[in-house]
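Before anything else, study the sequence and fold tokens given here and see whether the fold suits the sequence. Record follows:
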Amino acid sequence: MNGTDGTKASISCDSNSAPYTLASTISQASFVIFILILDVCGNCLVIGAILHYRRLRTVTNYFIISLAVSDVLIAALSMPFRIHHTLNYMCWDLGQILCEVWVFVDLLCSCASITNLSLISIDRFLALSFPLSYRSIMTKSRGFAAITFVWGYSGLIAALSFTGWSPDAETISSNECKKSDPYYYLFAITAGFFLPLTILVINYSMVFKVAFTQAKKLQLLKSASAMEPGEISEADIRKDARQSIVNIGRTERKRRKSIVRELKATKTLAIVIGTFIVCWLPFFIIMFIVQFCGDCLLKIPEKGQQFVAIVFVYVLPLLNSAVNPIIYSSFNSDFRKSFKDIFIRICVIRGRDSYTHRSTSGDEDVSVVTFFTSRFGNGTTPQIVIQEANSASEEGDSV
């Protein structure tokens, strides 16, 4: 996402010859700052929810943490360079070392994102294909080993950016930050994007096939569970005399619940993956074209170049870093409940501070539970609020 994807051959560090107007520059910088805040807050919320709530501590969600970490790293290590670059009229004045660091961070995070998504697609295939034995197959130790491999693989690809592969390979850090090395980028784009993307597409094609089969089985299980006791033949009962009908029902309900859970998780992650492809595929295609045909994009009218640069190079890749938490909260009920719980906790802490201030500065005796009940408006206080309110009362009594 750095200068390697620019559409102009060279840029002069002069505000009068800047490719964008002052208003456009300010709006682009404001957009990046907004995405940075949304990225950090949203992905830290995802990480905090998974680590804090036992229900969310699954191997699949540990993979989601790994994906969220790559998005946070983009915000923390790459976007500040982007903001400076934008406010400096799309010119680079931070030297070669920081330019190489920017290239490395972009490659590391983008490769880690797509490789994490490929890992998630493998996990989804196993979860849907073997719903009852999945937990014994994908253990936490194997999951952490897979995450370590993802980051090691991505780090290796990114670290190779410090080497030169092409005869005329160089890192340009005067006026613009750009690594010119077609052979390396051919390897990096192939190994870091298109190979994981191919694995992802193959896995998800199998996942949807399995999901369709499991959905049909789910309907059969629902039909079987709805049968009256008299509809069960004596021959079926004699077939396994030791196993009671109650145990059969429990097994089938457990299987049905497992299939439903995995289907819901698969739907959410399919949306995440589809969003990633839409946001990043045009970027890597453009970067590939720039490396092997630097003048091809110059044939496009200037307005077209600016449109391509803003939409496919600037907006979509940055937007992808912040959109995943929104998807989780919209399509996954567990994440949605956890996010609400966290927000309620934040409101309780702020409200408790407000109550402490009021109770110590005034003579009126205010009930803590009544205070928080009025905050939520409907007269019913969530259990978490009651717990926090009680602890606040105890703290007030002990003072």
Summary: Confidence is low (pLDDT under 50) at residues 4-11, 228-232, 361-399. Residues 19-226+257-354 form a domain with the Rhopdopsin 7-helix transmembrane proteins fold (CATH 1.20.1070.10). The first helix runs from residue 22 to 52. The first strand starts at residue 170 and ends at 172.
